[in-house]
Amino acid sequence: MTDTISPFVGGIVGTPRLRKEDPALLTGESRFIDDLQLPGALWIALVRSPYAHARIGAIDASAALAVDGVVAVYTGADLEGDWAGPLPCAWPVTDDMKNPAHLPLAVGKANFAGDGVAVVVATSRYAAADGVEGVVVDYEPLEAVVDVRDAASDRLVIHEDCGTNVAYDWELTPDPDGVAAAFENAVHHVTETYVHQRLIPAPMETRGVAVVPAPHNGDMTLYSSTQIPHVLKVMAALTLGVPEQKLRVVAPSVGGGFGCKLNVYAEELVCMTLANRHGVPVRWTETRTEAATATIQGRAQRQTIELAADADGKLTGVRATLLADMGAYLQLVAPGVPLLGAFLYHGLYDVPVYSFTCRSVFTNLTPTDAYRGAGRPEATYAIERAMDALAVAVGVGQDEIRSRNFIPTEKFPYDSPAGLIFDSGNYQPTLDRAKELMDWDGRRAEQAERRAAGSTMHLGLGISSYVEMCGLAPSRTLAALNYGAGGWESATVRILPTCKVQVVTGATPHGQGHETSWSMIVADQLGVDPDDVEVLHSDTAISPLGMDTYGSRSLSVGGTALWMATEKVIHKARAIAAHMLEANADDLDFAGGTFTVKGSPDKEVPLAAVAFGAFTAHDLPDGMEPNLEAQVTWDPGNFVFPFGTHIAVVEVDEETGAVELIDYAAVDDCGNQINPMIVEGQLHGGIVQGVAQALWEEAIYDADGQLRSANLADYLVPSAAECIDMKLDHTVTPSPTNPMGVKGVGEAGTIASTPAVMNAVVDALRPMGITDVRMPASPMTVRRAIEAAGGSS
Amino acid sequence: MEVSVIVNGTGRSADVEPRTLLVHYLRDDLGLTGTNIGCDTSSCGACTVLVDGRSAKSCTLLAAQVDGAEVTTIEGLATADGLHPMQQAFHECHALQCGYCTPGMVMAAVSLVDEYDDLDAAGVRVGLEGNLCRCTGYQNIVRAVLAASE
Questions:
Q1: Please, are residues A745 and A682 in contact by the beta-carbon 8 Å criterion?
Q2: Is the Cβ pair B125, A23 closer than 8 Å?
Q3: Residue (of A770, A789, A478, A514) closest to A639 by Cα position
Q4: What's B79's DSSP letter?
Q5: Which residue in chain A is spatially nearest to B93 when comparing CA positions?
Q6: Distance from CA of B9 to the nearest CA of A (A)
Q7: Are B6 and B70 part of one and the same domain?
Q8: Within an 8 Å CB–CB cutoff, is residue B136 touching chain A?
Q9: B87 Cβ under 8 Å from any chain A Cβ
Q10: Mutate to test the interface with A, among B7, B72, B135, B146 (most CBs of A within 10 A)
Q11: Which domain holds residue B6?
Q12: Residue numbers in A near B125 (CB within 8 A)
């Protein structure tokens, strides 16, 4: 049932291997941004608008300047001349998209609670914080727009110069007549509306910035807790007008990102400009409360999805409509987040016609942007919840409705109705195996028994089958979507004179274990010990070319570049070996780190001798450059499409509304696996992050646009006590689009788990007539749903 | 004010403002940056250290409160012979990804195992409720703590 073709023969790739990142992280040796020692550095703290929408009047900094240690205070107006441009939005999805000027410090008007209006510079972080208390800003509070429908009505326009709160409308309907006909002729027409609450990404390390200037020679080093040092370098150079070749960006150890560090933030540019002005290092570390409002949030969409199906429940058309909340401004890739889901609202089902439309609006809330999955969790949620509704309408099981509609394996590569080409897939085995892991029939029987016995502890079973597009992304596809950059990745492989290996990658890990996986790939290809491979990254002085880490792209794009660079090095080494052995290069075998002449196994030369020979360059083939080094930039030809099926079982207490996740099974297919241990770890964490959206997490705003869950006491990031052990298995369907046959797995768990859990919650409550529960399914929300349905009170 | 502690077996002291938190004292005054800060409400546990052998969130204590106490930070666990058994278990069970919560999680786990003799998975989950991890989903952390407790 699975195809396990892999190019690896070294016995390293595909087996679990402990991480080489761990010892430094386990002992406190790692250096995160706040750990950097920078003598003489000044600290900044931002004065942030307490109002979601307010005109900024006079700013009196005199009390702040009297604080011991405070060096200076700057308002937005003071620094306005320092910016060559506003904070960048790199994804103008339509030509007429509205993009209001987003200055690092607001001038004239604050547009969300947390918008920076002034900055205090001081000799310590304590003094900077004290200084903020002393800055008196004369605000004129304005009415805030907090609801997307209210925003879309333009009753109150936030950015006057835009003339509307609508940032853009975007549509993908390849066959409008076909869609209309599908719904006209549908036997079953399901219409569902879902709400994705706002989420706070909450990596355990908040953001931080430190800028070290060299005023006399003009160099500047920007340290930032970022996922994107390479992208940041370009954007910072453009926004500040500094020469890019003088700018070095370093991401030190980064304590998680989940998309929220895939951005260019005000504090990075403020620190840069103040380092310029003061001529000394300037630094900032975000507090957790700041992280809730000043770092991007995720999701925030209202969705309507319609399914057309024939009498058997076979889909004949899918139509999805979104209203997406951009927040107060457009952050780096925010407009594109709905588009990353736009192609996937038909899920992994074979559908002839398809329509997607999205309207994105401004509100007076924290800007949104990419958060683990970015668009694909939203799409998967819509189709997977709606498939359960269709199953009910047709009168078949949730498993059966999916089996009837899965894209048949023989149709791959599959031309999707949204215009993509799905690379490979074999969906039914993941559903079968997940049901087996879960004892689906046994659980169903248990559910029926409880119902028959009149139990108030209801069991619910939820399935979510998913496909995602990741490996962002073919540059030409990005061009068609108006994205402002390419989707390639770079790698350099360098065999040192002593046959140790240096790898330089443009990917920027922040927990994913690239150093381990990358060294496994290279070691397997070269026949060396993975411990002899050093992986360098996250510093533009060491790794000048890169597009960084997000969108489950590192392995399928950056890993492919690495694989190809290693092959290129082997090709050169082979020529040198042939010269040493006085043989034809085509007559050499290379295995286990040794070149041998075919048919003459006693004629051999180890890679170590070739490496040293390439270094001394005493006797290289004519015209060959010394040293063994190769660089490859890979631009993928297509996305990759991982898939799988997850099943959740929940217990819902009818009397209290409490939902408990009691069992979870996941069967995922990310193609060939490099390090199965890391794959499992990504799934564990991803699943819990998606479960958290279903059950616990929400950025709760009041009608004035005040965030009521602005810290980890009020925003429920789950602890070990809420979580359970998950049962994982996998199938292997290699991608034909890259030589390693790999896909991606960083976001899969999050994409799959939210609808699995919510389908389970609704399944538990369906006998009461409940067809939807808002996320998160808190006890209060569940009780309200029960009471609204006329259940027990 | 002068605050003196025995940190990881060595007597250290520094002159600090009375309001200085223990975590800032350790990080900024003693240069022990292995202990991380993850929140401002004592919710996340990233800053957990041992004070006189028991786990404590070092953001909830003033440095002045531990004057004269013995403090163990993550830097004090490993020896020249290698990782502490809890660190080793975290490594072998893949119980960390980004590693930011890890020092606090390991310190809390060391204290938990020290305190309870017959820990099971449920006990570990409840016992580590005060330490948040965003990466691992906790499954491998629980496995590691159980492995180290044997």
A1: yes
A2: no
A3: A478
A4: B
A5: A18
A6: 16
A7: yes
A8: yes
A9: yes
A10: B135
A11: 2-75
A12: 719-721, 723
> Where do we find the tokens 């063994």?
A628
Helix, coil or strand: residue B139 = helix
CATH assignment, A33-142+206-254+261-294: 3.90.1170.50
| pLDDT at residue B87, as a whole number | 98
Residue B125 and residue A721: Cβ atoms within 8 Å? yes
Q: What is the 3-state secondary structure (H, E, C) of A420-437?
A: CEECCCCCHHHHHHHHHH
CA-CA distance, A408 to A35, in Å (whole number)? 53
Give CA separation, A7 vs A2, A489, A505, A525, in Å.
Answer: 16, 20, 21, 9
Residue A258 contacts B, CB cutoff 8 Å: yes
pTM above 0.80, yes or no: yes
Please give the pLDDT value at position A792.
59
Q: Label residue A70 exposed, middle or buried (CB < 10 Å: 0-12, 13-18, 19+).
A: buried
Q: Which residues of chain B have pLDDT under 70?
A: none
CATH number of A298-472+638-788: 3.30.365.10
What SS3 class is residue A634? strand
The Cα-based distances of A549 to A234, A251, A672, A697 in angstroms read 16, 12, 20, 25
Interface of A with B in 199-218 (CB under 8 A): 202-206
pLDDT value, residue A791: 67
Alpha carbon of A139 to those of A60, A111, A117, A121, A328: distances in Å? 12, 12, 11, 22, 18
Residues 122 through 151 of chain A touching chain B, CB cutoff 8 Å: 126
Chain A: residue nearest B33 by CA? A35
Which residues in B lie closer than 8 A to residue A205 (C-beta atoms)? Answer: 36, 38, 98, 100
Q: What is the DSSP letter of A482?
A: T
Q: Is residue B80 part of a domain?
A: no
Residues 63-82 in B contacting A (C-alpha not used; CB under 8 Å)? 73-75, 77-78
Task: Give the residue from B38, B54, B75 where a domain finishes.
Answer: B75
- Report the number of distinct structural domains present in chain B: 2
pLDDT at A793: 52
Residues of chain A with pLDDT below 50 are 1-4
Note whether residue B135 is domain-resident: yes
- The number of C-beta contacts closer than 8 angstroms across A and B is 178
How many Å separate Cα A495 from the centre of its chain? 33
Fold (CATH) for A22-29+488-634:
Aldehyde Oxidoreductase; domain 4 (3.30.365)
Q: CA-CA distance, A248 to A232, in Å (whole number)?
A: 10
Start and end residues for every CATH 3.30.365.10 domain found in chain A: 22-29+488-634, 298-472+638-788
Q: Domain holding B12: CATH number?
A: 3.10.20.30
Closest chain B residue by Cα to residue A514:
B97
